[in-house]
Write a structure and sequence with these properties.
This protein has 2 domains: about 160 residues, no CATH class; about 150 residues, Heat Shock Protein 90 (2-Layer Sandwich), CATH 3.30.565. Helix content is about 55%, strand content about 15%.
């Protein structure tokens, strides 16, 4: 198993699949190619130095200097290509995600407005239904814009937040109640368990609420034909651990390494046409890092996923009376 992972890391074509670019533009392939060139140059330099210099110590020093300089240049060039390839991939995915996420609500908005303006409905109940469609699709576009702005603030270090004492139990219960209608509509049962007198955590309530909402929303939406979501809280080593487990579609093994990247959505989710921008988990990870927390997951395609995060416990400091 470990040998297989080593082979995956050393595979020069792995980055080609990730960045979706030709082989000759892949950072890892270029690194390997330049490495072979460096070896050839070092060997040639050695023989030339033997002929021209003669002194073995000077030859070794000269060859090591040339080899070291070439390796540094190789690293700089390859790293630059990797950043360019990553930027190109992000741009392509950004355009794809945004255009897809905006096209559907805009089509719904246009169709609903045309019907309302035409006056052909002639029924207050029908009109109310189409006003509801307008509201829902406007909300979808608003959520996408808010997520894009949040990503921008995270990457520029301008995300404002405040740390306060929060009961993760109360916050989770409130969010479960908020998602009750969505869960019932999807035939999903939500189970919640937490020990009594669980300590509070230090975080921003609004941002932490967004993290939990995103995890619960994903768990419900990625369950097909009914199922169950289990949420557990537990304290351990001065931290509170939050776990949410579902029996949904799961994440393909080969795609799990991309799960916290911006705009990433696994192929098995896309075939169900599930809503999402691929930004929620990226935002969740960055927000939790700001509060000293971590997030991780386990998943198996076709069986479900379990996402977990940890946050530091609020320590009670008591003053000693003299």
């Amino acid at each position: 198993m470990k040998f297989k992972k080593i082979l995956e890391v050393l595979d020069p074509l792995r980055s080609c699949k990730k960045y979706r670019i030709p082989t000759w533009q892949c950072p890892q392939f270029l690194f390997l190619l330049m490495g072979l060139i460096i070896i050839g140059v070092i060997i040639a330099t050695y023989f030339i130095a033997i002929l021209k210099i003669g002194d073995p110590r000077m030859v070794s020093l000269f060859v090591l200097t040339v080899g070291g300089a070439l390796i540094v240049i190789d690293y700089i060039i390859t790293n630059s290509f990797e950043r360019i390839a990553e930027a190109s991939r992000m741009k392509t995915e950004f355009i794809s995600v945004v255009s897809h996420q905006l096209r559907s609500p805009l089509t719904n908005l246009r169709y609903s407005l045309e019907l309302l303006i035409s006056g052909k409905l002639g029924n207050k109940k029908k009109e109310k239904e189409y006003y509801k469609i307008l509201e829902e699709n406007t909300q979808r576009m608003g959520d996408l814009i808010n997520n894009l702005l949040t990503v921008s603030r995270i990457e520029t270090g301008r995300l404002s937040f405040k740390k306060e004492e929060i009961s993760l139990v109360d916050l989770t219960k409130k969010i479960i109640l908020k998602f009750k209608t969505l869960a019932e509509g999807a035939n999903v049962k939500i189970e919640f368990s937490a020990p009594k007198n669980l300590p509070k955590v230090l975080a921003d309530s609004l941002w932490l609420e967004q993290v939990v909402e995103n995890l619960l929303d994903n768990a419900i939406r990625y369950i097909k034909n009914g199922g169950k979501v289990k949420i557990k809280l537990r304290p351990k080593n001065k931290k509170i651990y939050f776990e949410i487990q579902d029996n949904g579609v799961g994440i393909p093994k080969e795609e799990q390494k991309f799960i916290f990247q911006k705009f990433f959505r696994s192929r098995n989710v896309l075939k169900y046409q599930t809503e999402g921008s691929g930004l929620g988990l990226y935002i969740a990870k960055q927000v939790l890092k700001l509060f000293g927390g971590e997030i991780w997951f386990k998943s198996e395609e076709g069986k479900g996923s379990a996402f977990s995060f940890s946050l530091p416990i609020k320590e009670n400091k008591t003053k000693v009376q003299k």
